[in-house]
Structures are given as structure tokens and as C-alpha cells.
Amino acid sequence: MAAEGGLDKARTNLANMLMQGEGGPQDLAGARRWSKLALDNGDRTAAMSYIVATLTDSSADQREKQEALAILKLEVRNGNPRALALLQRLKGDG
User: Fold this and answer.
1) What pLDDT, in 10s, does the model give residues 7-36?
2) Burial (CB count <10 Å: 0-12, 13-18, 19+), residue 7
3) What whole-number distance in Å separates Cα of residue 21 and Cα of residue 29?
4) Of the candidates 48, 23, 52, which has an alpha carbon nearest to the alpha carbon of residue 38?
């Protein structure tokens, strides 16, 4: 997988698998860790994985959740329709 899409794509895919519990129990902390690595390396596709994993992980602290919300708002400003839908849902508008 890393050879086809690059290391950050593989990290994002791993994060999504962990978030969904594929191959074992759901691991939101692991999903946050792997998607954050990809996001920090500039992989914008990792943003939504990081946002969802962080906002749904009860072990994420308030600072991490605020960072995820800031990234979500940035994604909305950048025209990401999935980010807009999530933000509206969080606000109760959709």
C-alpha cells in the first residue's frame, strides 16, 4: 500500500482501519496518532480522519479537541464538503 500511494496515504488508511475496528477492536488513539503523522507531513486527506478520530475519542484532551475543531474549520474554508457537512452536524444544523 505504501508503494502505491506513499507512506502518508498508508498512514491515513491505517488510521481509518483502526477507527472502524477492522481486524480488531476500535482504536481511536491509534487512529489519531497515524492520521496526525500523515497530516503533519502535509497529507490533507488525513485531516478528516484526524478530526473524526479526535472528536470521538474520549481519551483526547480538550486541547486536542480544540485543535481538531480548528483543522475542521480550516477544511471548511478550503472548500471541503465533508468538513462542511460535519461542522453543520456538530452545530445541529444538519
Assistant:
1) 778 888 888 888 788 867 788 888 899 899
2) middle
3) 12
4) 48
